[in-house]
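Q: Here's a chain of 189 amino acids. Please give me its 3D structure as tokens.
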Amino acid sequence: MSAASFLRTARTSRGMSQRALAQRANVRQPGIADIESGAHDTTLSRLEELLAALQYRLTPIPTTSRGVWEVAYAVAAAVQASDEANAWRQVIQLADDLAREPAATRIALTVTPPPSTGSARYDALIAGLTEYRLRGLPCPAWVNDSRYSLADEWDVETLPSLREAARNATPEEFSRHGIYLDPRELESV
């Protein structure tokens, strides 16, 4: 996790431009651009000040698992590289990580809205997976945002002969987002 991606995620999740954040934090916009581009690393105290202006707070979580927002960046890189296998591996790892974490940690890892992956399908898949792994727990509001649901449904199963069985096995947390898959597809082998 870098300060660049952390700050960019917090800022964009608030729908704020760099200029607006600069005004709110009483700093210069080019300084924020330098941090977000990775051209300039920042101190922890400076990052905390900028996050406070966004009404975010740095909090250590006792885990080595990545947050949903971090996974979305990794999926976005894979999507941009047309590496479907890596994008899928990132989602499988997220499914594994969320499954093994205690409830409070699971919630903490999903609170920050993920940035777009550049693929509406993967955005919806991440939202459905988040909701599925939080079953029975409080769910972050972002999963209900229409940006994380598909207008054109996605049958993840590519074999027509298996598609109906996959649709029948799809948990409602996924179908609500327009994703149809057998949840066993998300298990590591």
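Q: Can you summarize the key feature?
A: DSSP finds ten helices and two strands in the chain.
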